[in-house]
Specification:
Layout: H1 2-26, H2 31-36, H3 45-78, H4 94-123, E1 131-138, E2 141-150, E3 156-160, E4 168-172, E5 176-183, E6 188-192, E7 197-201, E8 213-217, E9 222-228, E10 240-246, H5 248-258, H6 271-276
Parallel strand pairs: 1-5, 4-10
Antiparallel strand pairs: 1-2, 2-3, 5-8, 6-7, 6-9, 9-10
């Protein structure tokens, strides 16, 4: 009987280890995907900072979990009731209690420190960003305007989404971009998964409980879907936009075209017309490539 009990525990450990190994292998994830724990691949240094904080926080949590689970199973396996004799008691073991108190305290302090460091980096703002864009949300679409670029009529370059067009937020790579968020009706939320960042947009600046300005630096060209992440009404699910990240020279060319009059329409070039005039393949597609148009009336509200 004793021999069987002695061999059962190692066998259970082997089975548990095998199940865990098969579980990890069956996911089909690469090492990079495993370390991101489900997060998309970030495209900004700020996103990478948050990803690292998330990864190491999860690893620390798993380590604590494995320790606790191990102690539980160890107690179940080796400290089962074997007789009516009361086992040795440890409820007044002061050194052990101090250890149990000190370890969680150290874990909390370390986690707080790295959280504060990452948060300060992500929320840092420069005095003179390279580019500034005003993000205006409304039911159920987006407006992006660039106050530093003016059309011949003196108005800022502006892109407004419609029911027939997913709006493109064109930004330069490798430059500090400042986003000023606002809303014209209800609370929405500006969310780009590859930024690893979400921030609500409020209709009343004086009633805003968070900073409506943030900055980041996009580190590679590409197209990245953006969404509203705050339930805001009937067509909330269709309230998408697209970030189009271009190299600085392409961005300058794009803005130059946006500030010029289109001889065919007599109006300044819109986003689609400016991108169509540029020769850079899919990166200059005049329409969104990450989200499809929806045949719905998505303009319950109005832009600025």
């Amino acid at each position: 009987m004793g021999l069987k009990e002695g061999t059962r525990v190692p066998r259970l450990v082997k089975v548990a280890g095998l199940i865990g190994l098969v579980g990890v292998a069956a996911t089909g994830c690469t090492t990079d995907e495993v370390l991101r724990f489900g997060w998309p691949e970030g495209v900004t240094p700020q996103a990478e900072s948050m990803r690292q904080l998330w990864t190491w926080s999860v690893i620390a949590a798993l380590a604590v979990g494995v320790l606790v689970w191990g102690l539980i199973f160890w107690s179940v396996a080796f400290h089962r009731k074997k007789s009516e004799e009361l086992p040795r008691q440890f409820q007044y073991n002061v050194p052990l209690e101090l250890v149990y108190t000190a370890i969680p305290f150290v874990l909390v302090v370390v986690l707080f420190y790295f959280t504060a460091v990452s948060q300060n980096y992500v929320l840092a703002k420069s005095e003179e960003p390279d580019e500034t864009v005003n993000v205006v949300s409304f039911q159920w679409n987006w407006e992006f305007n660039y106050p530093d670029y003016r059309t011949p009529d003196g108005e800022p370059v502006r892109t407004v989404g419609t029911s027939n067009e997913v709006p493109l937020l064109v930004l330069p790579v490798g430059e500090t971009v400042q986003y000023n968020l606002s809303s014209t009706d209800v609370i929405h939320s500006f969310f780009v998964p590859e930024f690893h960042f979400k921030r609500d947009t409020f209709p009343h600046p004086d009633k805003n409980n968070q900073d409506n300005v943030f900055e980041n630096v996009i580190d590679r060209e590409g197209s990245f879907i953006g969404r509203c992440a705050e339930l805001c009404g009937t067509y909330h699910a269709m309230m998408n936009f697209e970030v189009r990240a271009l190299s600085p020279d392409k961005f300058d060319q794009y803005m130059q075209l946006r500030t010029q009059i289109n001889p065919r329409t007599g109006e300044p070039n819109n986003a689609a017309e400016a991108l169509s005039a540029m020769d850079c393949g899919e990166l200059c597609s005049p329409t969104a490539v990450t989200s499809e148009q929806f045949s719905t009336e998505r303009t319950g509200g109005v832009p600025s």
